[in-house]
Amino acid sequence: MEAASYIILIGSSLLIASILTSYLALRVGTPLLLIFLAVGLLAGEDGIGGIRFNDADSAFLIGSMALAVILFESGFDTKLSSYRAAAWPAMSLATVGVAITTGIVGAASHYLLDLPWVESLLVGAAVSSTDAAAVFFLLRAGGITLRDRVRSTLEIESGSNDPMAIMLTIILVEAAVHGWGTPWDVALEFVRAIGGGGILGLAGGWLLVAFINGAKLEAGLNPVVTLAFALFLFAGTNIIGGSGYLAVYIAGLYAGNVKLRGALELRRFHSGLTWLSQIVMFVMLGLLATPREFDRILLPGLGVAAVLILVARPLAVWLCLLPFRFSANESTFMAWVGLRGAVSLLLALVPVLGDLPGGQVIFNTAFLVVITSLLVQGWTIGPMARWLGLIVPPRRGPVDRVELELPGEADQELVAYRVHAQSPAARGQRLPRWARPSLVIREGRVVPLHKAKPLQPGDHVYVFAAPGRLVLIDKLFGGSRPLDQNDREFYGDLVLNPDATVGQIAEMYGLPLSLANAQRTLRDLLQMEFGGACELGDRVRMGGVELIVRDIEDGEIQSIGLALEPTPVAKPRVALFSRPKELWGRLRGWWGSRSFRRWQRRQQERKRRPDGAAGSD
């Protein structure tokens, strides 16, 4: 009894310490996952806590359960609409990108760590996948507003690349223990893992939704059902040879994108549970590590991390995104957001559990890589996005909105707003019938609706509305803000009607005109250019100006911006991430430049000098 109390006391103390330090970390911009890992290290046997924890089996079990919970919530909170523009590039990164990263990091590990090839490739496989927990947190909770296509690609990749990394790790461990199988066996195992995980994930998500909607249990039981079902699906899929990680992610994705009873409460529950899972997983892995053993591999381990961050990830991203329409700056950012986390540490435990000779070296190397990734990449995501010009300026001021779900099958939501001082409603704009409040609270008192007009800043209004109209109501009660210089660079200097024709705009501004496009509207021109999948900030060059998608709702372009000069947003910061055609143009331009001719003359003069000596003949 006393021992159990001590264990509970220590565990709760570590949770409290993680929460308190995370509060301080948010103020200085420290990646929270790094804080959780540091708490575990400090509490471990080499830290001030002196807690001895070396049970790799228990760590793998607890970490796998926590990761399943995180992946279910990741899918549950991802909109299916984001797959329309980002599915193929994300899948390319999640498969081909993982394989490329494994090969490059494996080769570096072979020479830097002096490991056999199989164990070196295990290092590459362990750190080949980006971490869903780290990416989702830093992109969603880090205050970074990116273009939808970039954010969705990173989130989908991080949520779906684990099966590939897990398969590579299992195949390599089997090869180290029992020798290599035939290529057919390897391909069959991979297809079974991906196919089984995908099919069972869809079936499991459908069953979960059907049960919750049909059983109509007490609201407090629904979170218990989703948690138990997610863990059951994860374990069952693994047992029959499929990828449990992929299955639980797809089940969450399905359940989060259909009508589900109590969906709002489920999102809140799983959000809190995900925080708990992240803290438990990172603190536990910090406890498992032995920092005194890092001295032996510190420099080689940092070398492996440098190869991953500066070579393997950028090259994999560049090659995988070549067929897709991403700018050089977007590719640069996605190459930088290759965060490694708990998945890498869990996969690095597999060689330890398999009793491989270099298992501990693999785990320690992966630990150093994860720490380096969180320190270098996790701390600089915001500055990197701003430097590359990828931050999307908000079109509206703050919106203070709370959604309250109605019981039963009602296709309405009760939404509470706090009226912003700069909102159209506070400035006396007449509200449409479908946006008029049902209740107004002013200075803590309920005000009759006929006496509440006009609405005043600070009023709390309650509106019954269809979910599809919430974006429109946000515009009425949320704040407005003037465009600044950064906004004009992103959205353009002027606003154009998307129904205006290309010929009209060309004549008005003296722009070159293609007769084939003369009668097209600006909306049609942009949709043709981007295959009908336009998003905010997409731009097309038209002579010396740029046409920019300025406002879009439900996939339909509402307004178009005109930038009178090409903006810095479109200029690549890192030339190596340009498309091959652009790189070839840069090289040709350099070959014809004065700098190249001066370089040629210097080389010719050097050859004429005896022994390449400096000075004149």
Automatic annotation (TrEMBL):
<dbReference type="InterPro" id="IPR038770">
    <property type="entry name" value="Na+/solute_symporter_sf"/>
</dbReference>
<keyword id="KW-0812">Transmembrane</keyword>
<dbReference type="GO" id="GO:0015297">
    <property type="term" value="F:antiporter activity"/>
</dbReference>
<feature type="transmembrane region" description="Helical">
    <location>
        <begin position="33"/>
        <end position="53"/>
    </location>
</feature>
<keyword id="KW-0813">Transport</keyword>
<feature type="transmembrane region" description="Helical">
    <location>
        <begin position="224"/>
        <end position="252"/>
    </location>
</feature>
<dbReference type="GO" id="GO:0005886">
    <property type="term" value="C:plasma membrane"/>
</dbReference>
<feature type="transmembrane region" description="Helical">
    <location>
        <begin position="272"/>
        <end position="290"/>
    </location>
</feature>
<feature type="transmembrane region" description="Helical">
    <location>
        <begin position="163"/>
        <end position="181"/>
    </location>
</feature>
<keyword id="KW-0050">Antiport</keyword>
<keyword id="KW-0406">Ion transport</keyword>
<feature type="transmembrane region" description="Helical">
    <location>
        <begin position="361"/>
        <end position="381"/>
    </location>
</feature>
<dbReference type="InterPro" id="IPR005170">
    <property type="entry name" value="Transptr-assoc_dom"/>
</dbReference>
<feature type="transmembrane region" description="Helical">
    <location>
        <begin position="6"/>
        <end position="26"/>
    </location>
</feature>
<dbReference type="GO" id="GO:1902600">
    <property type="term" value="P:proton transmembrane transport"/>
</dbReference>
<feature type="transmembrane region" description="Helical">
    <location>
        <begin position="121"/>
        <end position="142"/>
    </location>
</feature>
<feature type="transmembrane region" description="Helical">
    <location>
        <begin position="193"/>
        <end position="212"/>
    </location>
</feature>
<keyword id="KW-0472">Membrane</keyword>
<dbReference type="Pfam" id="PF00999">
    <property type="entry name" value="Na_H_Exchanger"/>
</dbReference>
<keyword id="KW-1003">Cell membrane</keyword>
<dbReference type="InterPro" id="IPR006153">
    <property type="entry name" value="Cation/H_exchanger_TM"/>
</dbReference>
<protein>
    <submittedName>
        <fullName>Potassium/proton antiporter</fullName>
    </submittedName>
</protein>
<keyword id="KW-1133">Transmembrane helix</keyword>
<feature type="transmembrane region" description="Helical">
    <location>
        <begin position="59"/>
        <end position="76"/>
    </location>
</feature>
<feature type="transmembrane region" description="Helical">
    <location>
        <begin position="88"/>
        <end position="109"/>
    </location>
</feature>
<feature type="transmembrane region" description="Helical">
    <location>
        <begin position="333"/>
        <end position="354"/>
    </location>
</feature>
<feature type="transmembrane region" description="Helical">
    <location>
        <begin position="297"/>
        <end position="321"/>
    </location>
</feature>
<feature type="domain" description="Transporter-associated">
    <location>
        <begin position="487"/>
        <end position="566"/>
    </location>
</feature>
